[in-house]
Amino acid sequence: MGSRIHVYPNGSLLIGSVTEEDGGDYVCVARNGAGDDLSLMHVSLRLTPARINGKQHLARQVRQGKDFRVDCKASGSPQPAISWSLPDGRRIDQAGLAEDGGPRTGRYRLFDNGTLHVGAVGVAEEGDYTCHAQNTLGRDEMRVRLTVLTAAPRITRGSPASVRVAAGDTAVLDCEVVGEPRPRMFWLLPSGHTVSSSSGRYAFHANGSLWVREVRTRDSGEYVCVARNPSGGDARAYAVEVASRPPRINGVAARRTVVSATALRHSRKLLHCRAEGQPPPRVRWLMPDGVELAAPYRGGRVAVHANGTLEIRNARPSDAADFTCVARNAGGESELLVRLAVRDLLRRPTFRSPSNQRVAAPLGRPAALNCSADGNPPPEIIWMLPNGTRLSPGRPDSRHLIASNGSLLFRKTTRQDAGRYRCAARNQVGYIEKLVVLEVGQTPVILTYAPRTVSSAAGDSLWLHCVSDGIPKPHIKWTTPSGSVLDRPQGNGRYTLHENGTLAIKAATAQDRGNYVCQAQNSVGQALITVPVSIVAYPPRITSRPPSSILTRTGVAFQLHCVALGVPKPEVTWDTPDHSPLSRAREGLHPQGTLVLENPQTSDSGLYRCTARNALGSDYAATYVQVI
User: What is the pLDDT confidence band of residue 104, given thresholds at 50, 70 and 90?
Assistant: First the structure.
């Protein structure tokens, strides 16, 4: 059966999208092997033609650029189809297609309820819009006339009617416009040309402003801002005056500038005269002989380049003179006077004392740091202080002064003056510098208490102390009574000088007595102390002597006493009858000098001699021993 008519398995009949022809009698037949049965049904259709609800012919006004929306609701049975006819003859239906089969434009939209939406209307969308509602029983129409409202351009705000700007600067001309549709804008220049977009020196901004960069005197004149749209136009004129800028030579804005220059004999010398201004200035040089040379110029030894530089080749002593550069434009005139000196030989700076230095100065006293330099021309001396400050001869401060020989003078030193100073010497040929370290010193002070006399027994070790303080750290030197000098830590025989300044004397003798002088010295000054040393000493003296003779028996032990005093302590020795000496190192001789014979024999008979000896002398005692 047709696509509109469908019979379900349960016997129901479905008729889709009914039309007036579907009305009438329908017979349902049921049949099987046993027989037939049927049922008659009559269908009456209630159909109505398409009709637009609330139809009226409308006139709508919309401002240009706004959206346009209009409703078209229709009723009928079957349900009517809605479409719209546009002012240009095209038709938009609910399938989204134009009548010509092409797709609808993005600005038109037809909703399922028949509402037409047109986005951002313009003058082209003005006209009659017709809504069509149609079904099988009939059709209906509704027309809507759209009027698009526009506004003629009007310049609401801009720059003053007269604008004055300096040559080389940027001229800003404002021109704000309102209007519907948005006006097209452009500028008429004094030259008759038009500007509607940025180009070269002209910047055309979205708000209508015109910027003219690096204006020149020929940019003066009338500038006209023009705004137009379909509803009309508006214009505003601005008078622009470009003021000329006086010349500047080498970046200096002065009526007259005087500088000095030096040329080496037989060399090439360039005298620069870079002139700036609006309009661009013309440059000429006045030579010492009164001749004027305009740029550019090329001669035998002399040339003037296009940029204003004067070139002198193979400089001679006669070229030592005044050369004047003159730059002139409509804004005025500037001069540069160059006093040229010609020298036979240029020599880079050299320090008379080239090595880095370390200088110690007393606290609170005047001080000087030397920085003498030679060169041709004589070099300029510059000092860099520890805090980074630069000092030159023409720029002293309250505490420092640079002398004519380049020395940095301190009126009164303080602790804060200590640090690293850099001295620089420069001339046209070169630049050198060196480091000078300033130590603000303290005169040495010897902290050790000096006794009246240091006494020691002969043979003992002796320590003489000399602790000092000062800035910089003092150097210690000892002078002995014999005139010997110990000026560095060392071990020299019986003398040892330690790092802390202590002098050690090993096994002192009587010859070591006398005055020892300790000297503490640094670059600021010195301090002295004298230490008297007394060495106690006397020659040996036997105080306990043996008897002059002894008689003893064989095998019976006996002792011979020999006690001696002296400083240094004397050594005691015995001479036996066979003339062999006995010392304390041998068995039988006690430390006090006593001689013990444990088992004497007759052969031990004879003369025994005791001797006590030290560095100052000796003493002796003798006894005769008879063994029977």
Answer: very low
List C-alpha distances in Å: 103 to 95, 255, 295. 9, 77, 73
Amino acid at 208: G
Q: What is the pLDDT of residues 415-438, one digit of tens each?
A: 888 899 999 999 988 999 999 998
CATH of domain 347-441: 2.60.40.10
Question: Would you give the DSSP letter of residue 11?
Answer: S
Show the tokens assigned to 17: 């999208």
> What pLDDT does residue 100 have?
44
Tokens 């049975």, residue located: 77
Give the alpha-carbon dihedral of 272, 278, 279, 281, to 10 degrees. Answer: -20
Topology adopted by domain 151-243: Immunoglobulin-like (2.60.40)
Residue 490 to residues 294, 464, 466, 483, 617, Cα–Cα distance (Å): 83, 15, 15, 17, 33
Residue 103 pLDDT grade (very low, low, confident, very high; cuts 50, 70, 90): very low
Residue 296's pLDDT band, with cuts at 50, 70 and 90, is: very high
Output the DSSP codes for 175-196. Answer: EEEEEESPPEEEEE-TTS-EES
Region of poorest pLDDT, from 184-193, 255-264, 448-457: 448-457
Q: What is the mean pLDDT of residues 145-173?
A: 84
Please give the average per-residue pLDDT across 253-275, as a whole number: 91
Task: Give how far Cα 572 sits from Cα of 2, 68, 548, Å.
Answer: 161, 144, 18
| DSSP codes, 271-332 | E---EEEESPPEEEEE-TTS-EEESSEE-SSEEE-TTS-EEE-S--GGG-SEEEEEEEETTE
The residue ranges of every structural domain in the chain are 48-149, 151-243, 245-343, 347-441, 447-536, 538-627
CA 160, 162, 165, 171 dihedral sign is: positive
In this prediction, residue 396 has a pLDDT band, given cuts at 50, 70 and 90, of: low
Of 567, 456, 568, 441, residue with least CA distance to 503: 456
* For residue 69, pLDDT beyond 60: yes
Average pLDDT over residues 502-521: 88
Q: Are 279 and 330 in contact (CB under 8 A)?
A: yes
The pTM of the full predicted model, rounded to 2 decimals, is 0.33
CA distance 178 to 184: 11
Q: In 3D, which of 211, 92, 233 has the Cα closest to residue 159?
A: 211
Distance CA 436, CA 371 (A): 9
Nearest to 376 by CA among 338, 337, 350, 413: 350
Per the structure block, which two tokens stand in for 160? Answer: 């003053």
What's the CATH number for 538-627?
2.60.40.10
Alpha carbons 473 and 520: distance in angstroms, whole number: 9
Instruction: Match 């020299």 to its residue by tokens.
Output: 492
Give the separation between CA 215 and CA 198, rounded to whole angstroms: 15
Q: What percent of the chain has pLDDT over 90?
A: 29
Cα separation, 575 vs 569, in Å, equals 20
Residue 587: its pLDDT value, please?
45
The CATH code of domain 245-343 reads 2.60.40.10
Residue 512 and residue 505 in contact, taking contact as beta carbons nearer than 8 Å: yes
Fold of 48-149: Immunoglobulin-like (2.60.40)
Architecture of domain 447-536 in this structure: Sandwich (2.60)
If one compares 354 and 434, the residue with the highest pLDDT of the two is 434
Mean pLDDT, residues 402-411 taken together: 89
